[in-house]
Amino acid sequence: MQNSRITQHGFDNFKTTYTFDITKYRIMKTITTNRIAKVLGSLIIVMLVGLNSNMTYAQNTQNDMTSSADQKLTVKGKVSDDEGPLPGVNIVLKGSKVGAVTDENGMFTFPQALSSGDVLVFSFLGFENQEIKVTPKNTFINLMMTSEFVEMMGAPNSDKPYRSKRSN
Questions:
Q1: The whole model's pTM is what?
Q2: Tens place of pLDDT for every residue, the chain, 168 residues?
Q3: Residue range 72-144 in CATH 1.10.238.10
Q4: Distance between terminal CA atoms of the chain?
Q5: Could you tell me where in the chain the CATH 2.60.40.4130 domains are found?
Q6: Are the beta carbons of 76 and 120 closer than 8 angstroms?
Q7: For residue 3, which of 30, 31, 33, 18 has the smallest C-alpha distance?
């Protein structure tokens, strides 16, 4: 077994000695302590920056998720059709009995604060029910109701006049 000794001077009075077994390894380039220190220093800086940014990202997304889920929203709006505002439209929080009714101008304010993701169901006789998902961006809902197609089965009997079955 043949050993080789390389001595390097540097770092103000520090002396580093490396011993290599030449039979096993071929040294293509002299490795300097200075180069290793620079590479390791750069690697440590990159790792610290990466860890710090990942922790900051995790904290921000967690705060964003809790703030949007915990945020209570007051929902208002106007309901109308092709001819103008609709008074008397029922607005109910899906899965509950809490609701509101539009006034003569088609305006409403939901009586309780809602969370993002709650669904409001709008219903009115002769119109299709519509569901609107509540988000922080749509706290004022301007809804246009579409009329529902009502099909009548059969024909009215007009051969004889209608008589009440009541007796006076």
A1: 0.51
A2: 455 555 555 555 555 555 555 554 444 444 556 667 777 777 777 777 776 665 555 555 444 454 555 678 899 999 999 999 999 999 999 999 999 999 999 999 999 999 999 999 999 988 999 999 999 988 899 999 988 876 666 666 667 776 677 765
A3: no
A4: 130
A5: 72-144
A6: no
A7: 18
CA dihedral 101, 75, 79, 120 (to 10 degrees): -70
Taking the CA of residue 33 as centre, how many other CA atoms within 13 Å lie in the half-sphere pointing to its CB?
Answer: 12
3-class state of residue 123 by DSSP: strand
The candidate with the shortest Cα–Cα distance to 145, out of 99, 106, 95, is 106
13 φψ region: left (φ > 0), alpha (ψ -120 to 50), beta (else): left
Specify the DSSP element, H or E, that contains 40.
Answer: helix 33-70
- Give the whole-angstrom CA distance, residue 107 versus residue 109: 7
Q: Taking a C-beta distance cutoff of 8 angstroms, is the pair 143, 77 a contact?
A: yes
Q: Which of 118, 94, 128, 90 is nearest to 106 (CA)?
A: 90
